Amino acid sequence: MKRPTILVLGAGYGGLTTVVNLQKLAGPNAADIILINKNDYHYESTWLHEASAGTLTPEQVRYDVKDVINSGKVKFVKATVDGIDVNTKKVATSAGEYTYDYLVIGLGFEGETFGIPGLDKYALSIANVNAARQIRDHIEYQFANWSTDDVQDDSRLTIVVGGAGFSGIEFLGELGNRVPELCKEYDVPKDKVRVVCVEAAPMVLPGFDPELVKYAVAQLESKGIEFSIGTPVVEATPEGVKIKTGEEEFEFIKAGTVVWAAGVRGNRLIESSGIENMRARVKVDKDMRAPGFPDVFIVGDCALMINEEINRPYPPTAQIAMQQAVTVAKNILALINGEGTSEFVPDLKGAVCSLGEHDAIGDVMGKKITGTKASIMKKVIDNRALYMIGGPLLVLKKGKFKL
Ligand code: FAD
Predict the structure, then answer these.
(1) Do 100 and 217 have their domain in common?
(2) CA spacing 20 to 30 A to 130: which of 12, 34, 51, 310?
(3) Does the record bear tRNA processing in its keywords (predicted)?
(4) Measured from the CB, is residue 321 less than 6 Å from ligand 1?
C-alpha cells in the first residue's frame, strides 16, 4: 500500500513543532513527510522585536531547519508557497506543484493595517526576520543621516510605534535600551530623539492585569517613551502619521520611522485556498481540522479558536501554536492508523511581556511578577521553546543565558 503523504507548509512554531512530533512518533514507514518553508531557517517570531530594535542580530534569532529535522524521516523543501487549493488537493510552490493525503497549514501571520491609508506603503512592520533587519537598518540610517546632514531635521529622530499591544510594547522596551546606545554611537543628543506609542484603544496591553500595565507604562515612560492613547492613526504619509485626537481634532506627528505593530491576520494564501476564513484565519474544528476538509489541519496564527469561557478567540501566540502542533501530529497519525482524532485543549500558562533586556511583566500560573524576576522567566520561556523543538543542543546553541 502506498504510504500517505503529509505535507506541512511553514517552518514556524506551528509547522516545525508538528514535524518534530511527527518524526518522533511516526514509525519508519508510516508516511512521507514533506516540510516546505520559504527559507532554509526557522526564525523565532517572538524575538523579532529584539532584532528590529537591534538588541539582537538577525542571526541570533534564527537557526537552520536541518539542525532539528531528521532527514531520514522528513524531506525539507526550501520554496515559497504560491497557492493552496484544498478542492483539488494541490499546493503550488516555487519548486513545483505538490499534492498530499494530509495537509498542515502553518504559514503564520501578516500585518493588518485595517485599510488605514498609507500604512501599507509608509510604515514598517515586524513581520519576519528580514523585515526586522529593515527596521533596525532604517532607524540607524536616520541617526547616521541626522549626524551628517548640513541642516538637521530632528523629525528624522522621531520613531512612531503604532499599537500598544504585546509586540508594540515589547518593541518599545527594546527601543528604550537601544536609543541611548544609538545616541552615543552617532553623537546625537538624547533630547533630540522622540519615541511615541500611538494606540487607538483606550488602554495599553488589553487583557493584562491593570497593576502590571501601570508598572510597564511607568518603566517605559522613565526611559523617555511617550504614549498617545485613544488616538487612532488615520493616515500615514512619507512624513509621518496623522492621528485623531478628538471629535474633529487631528494632530500630525512628523517622524522618520513609523513601525506598525497594531494588528495581525492570517497568511493571505488562506483566502484563496477554498477554506472558509475570517481575515485569513480559519475557525477550526475542535481537532484542528478545517471545517469540511477532513484531511486539512490548520496550526498557529492561521487557526482561529474560540475560548468558550469568555466567548472570544484565543490570542495568536507561539505558546498556543506549539501546543496545537502536538495535537495535529497525533491526530494525523491516528487517522493514518484508522483511529479517531482528539480535541485540542489549550493549557495556558500565562504571559510574560518583555520591557527590554532586564525588565518585564508577567502573569504566570496566576502569579504576578515584574522586573528581573519576570525578565528571567521570559528567558526561561524563550529557552523552553527552543528545547521543545530542538532539545538541549539547540538551547546551548541559541539560548538566552545572560541575566
Ligand atoms: P510563524 O512562527 O510566523 O511561522 C510561519 C512560517 O511560515 C515562517 O517560517 C515563514 O517563513 C513561513 N512562510 C510564510 N509564508 C510562506 C510562504 N508563502 N511560503 C513558504 N513559507 C512561508 N507569542 C507568544 O506566545 N509569546 C510572546 O512573547 C510573543 N511575542 C511576540 C513578539 C513579536 C514581536 C511578535 C511579532 C509576535 C509575538 N508572539 C508571541 C506571537 C507569535 O510569534 C506568533 O503567534 C507565532 O509566531 C505563530 O506561529 P506560526 O507557526 O503560526 O507562524
Answers:
(1) no
(2) 34
(3) no
(4) yes
Residue type, 380: V
CB–CB of 68/390 below 8 Å?
yes
Phi then psi dihedrals of residue 29, to 5 deg? -115, 25
Q: Quote the domain boundaries for residue 291.
A: 5-38+79-111+265-348
- Quick one: which atom of ligand 1 is closest to the CA of 299? 52
Q: Give the pLDDT confidence of 344-374 residue by residue, as tens digits.
A: 999 998 999 999 999 999 999 999 999 999 9
Could you tell me the CA-to-CA distances from 352 to 73, 212, 227, 369, 374 in Å, in that order?
35, 10, 21, 9, 7
Cα(96)–Cα(290) distance, integer angstroms: 24
State in Å: Cα 185 to ligand 1 middle.
32
| Catalytic position from the list 44, 110, 170, 357 | 170
The response to whether residue 45 sits with its C-beta less than 6 Å from ligand 1 reads yes
As a whole number of angstroms, the distance between CA 105 and CA 80 comes to 13
How many Cα atoms occupy the beta-carbon half-sphere of 266 within 13 Å?
A: 28
Burial (0-12, 13-18, 19+ Cβ within 10 Å), 249? exposed
Q: What is the pLDDT of residues 176-189, one digit of tens each?
A: 999 999 999 999 99
Domains in the chain: how many in total? 2
What are the C-alpha distances in Å from 92 to residues 8, 22, 34? 13, 23, 14
Instruction: Determine how many CB atoms are found less than 10 A away from the CB of residue 366.
Output: 7
For residues 172 and 276, membership in a common domain is answered with no
